[in-house]
């Protein structure tokens, strides 16, 4: 049971996402032996885990250096990246040295950005320590920082040598963070893998237990969904005709991003995406593309793990404005990933404004 699970991500430089207790032991192999320097980029939340990584690398004969960056989103700035570059310069980092990101998605995004820019790219390995980072941020090779122009507008594609997910590190994660990460897991269930939905429906309490077998299976399944989508559409360029491509991962995110923006990012990402998925389901139902039962199932599954499924009335104008500013809108047309059934994603572009308003009314619970 405790043997690690390996999920391959294909591409120019294929790598594995490895899931299971003790998988960090693979780090020295991933990084290659020798007199290599390793910058272990981390933040205050997962510092204890990063310290263990440093000790393990040292024991394996590598030369680790801890680089602590500000916690959470505050790490994703050009200034913080610049501080890291200065440190790498001071340490005499060469092309054969490596960066390891230990933390949530914000830390792994920044670590990836630093690794991809230093000497135009050095080796990177990721040890995600939040559920969201394990199933989403650390898988797929995207790195990013935020700028005055907006979130995640500056970044690069830089595939890691490997991603090591040890679920025992989730024991110290605040419960709200774990629940937020589950929204992306449930998303993978709706767009691609119905077994995820069944697992949550049958074992809702176990789904939020970091040490149980249910969460592990959920993580494995969600990682497989993301890995398959990313492998098929590596650079987010296009989808084969009739297929949705990497954009499928955006399910629930059109309204979700708008809610985050309107709320000034006080709402957690997963919570906003949860409401966004209910919205997308209502929209598809009203457009005659999704059956009422599957739309209702969104609320039921998300409710079971404590994710929000309602949003108050009175904010439509602000949300509508924020949605059209979303970088994923094309031209004037709003684009939504919708479902025509579980695991049957499609695109709805430029929906009738009455449907948009109708789906919003349904969110308040009034409809
Ligand atoms: N690159 C991508 O493809 C991609 C995809 C999705 C999201 N993201 C990015 O991921 C970020 C969100 O990631 P997140 O939700 O992991 O948030 P986060 O990185 O901000 O971490 C959340 C909090 O949890 C703490 N923490 C992390 N691990 C911990 C642990 N094991 N124990 C205790 N505390 C711990 C952190 O210190 C932080 O305060 C956003 O910046 C988003 O843009 C990137």
Characterize the structure shown:
The chain is an alpha/beta fold and 367 residues long. Helices cover 43% and strands 17% of the residues. It is built from 13 helices and eleven strands. It has a seven-stranded mixed β-sheet, with helices on both faces. It has a two-stranded antiparallel ribbon with strand order 7-8. The protein has a two-stranded antiparallel ribbon with strand order 10-11. Helix 6 packs across helix 7 and helix 6 packs across helix 8 (213-232). It is globular. The protein starts with a strand and ends with a helix. The chain binds nicotinamide-adenine-dinucleotide. Nicotinamide-adenine-dinucleotide binds at residues 43-46, 49, 71-73, 76, 103-107, 109, 129-130, 132-133, 136-137, 140, 142, 144, 152, 169, 172-173, 177, 269.
**Which structural class fits the helix and strand makeup?**
alpha/beta
- How would you characterize the largest beta sheet? 7 strands, mixed
Calculate the mean pLDDT score and round it. Answer: 94
Work out the helix count.
13
* Strand residues, percent: 15-25%
Distance between the termini: 46 Å
Shape: globular
H and E string: EEHEHEHEHEHEEEHHHHHHHEEH
Strand order of the biggest β-sheet:
1-2-9-6-5-3-4
Helical fraction equals 40-55%
What small molecules does the structure contain?
nicotinamide-adenine-dinucleotide
């Amino acid at each position: 049971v405790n043997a690690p699970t390996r999920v391959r991500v294909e591409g120019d430089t294929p790598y594995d996402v490895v899931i299971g207790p003790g998988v960090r032991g693979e780090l020295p192999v991933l990084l290659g032996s020798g007199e290599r320097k390793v910058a272990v980029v981390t933040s205050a939340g997962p510092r204890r885990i990063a310290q263990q990584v440093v000790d393990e690398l040292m024991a394996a004969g590598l030369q680790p250096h801890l680089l602590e960056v500000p916690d959470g989103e505050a790490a994703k700035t050009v200034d913080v990246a610049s501080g890291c570059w200065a440190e790498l310069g001071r340490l005499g980092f060469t092309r054969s040295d490596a960066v390891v990101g230990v933390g949530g998605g914000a830390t792994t995004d920044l670590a990836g950005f630093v690794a991809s820019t230093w000497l135009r790219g050095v080796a990177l390995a990721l040890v995600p320590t939040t559920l969201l980072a394990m199933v989403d941020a650390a898988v797929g090779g995207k790195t990013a920082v935020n700028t005055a122009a907006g979130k995640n507008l500056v970044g690069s594609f830089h595939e890691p040598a490997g991603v090591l997910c040890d679920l025992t590190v989730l024991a110290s994660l605040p419960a709200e963070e774990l629940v937020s990460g589950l929204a992306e897991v449930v998303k993978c269930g709706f767009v691609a893998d119905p077994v995820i939905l069944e697992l949550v429906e049958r074992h809702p309490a176990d789904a939020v237990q970091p040490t149980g077998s249910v969460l592990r299976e959920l993580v494995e399944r969600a990682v497989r969904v993301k890995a398959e989508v990313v492998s098929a559409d590596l650079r987010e360029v296009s989808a084969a005709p009739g297929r949705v491509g990497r954009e499928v991962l955006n399910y629930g995110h059109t309204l979700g991003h708008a809610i985050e923006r309107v709320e000034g990012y006080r709402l957690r990402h997963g919570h906003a995406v949860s409401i966004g998925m209910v919205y997308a389901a209502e929209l598809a139902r009203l457009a005659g593309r999704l059956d009422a039962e599957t739309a209702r199932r969104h609320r039921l599954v998300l409710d079971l793990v404590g994710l929000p499924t309602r949003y108050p009335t009175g904010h439509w104008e602000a949300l509508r404005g924020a949605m059209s500013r979303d970088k994923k809108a094309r031209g004037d047309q709003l684009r939504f990933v919708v479902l025509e059934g579980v695991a049957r994603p499609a695109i709805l572009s430029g929906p009738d404004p009455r449907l948009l308003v109708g789906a919003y009314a349904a969110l308040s619970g009034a409809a």
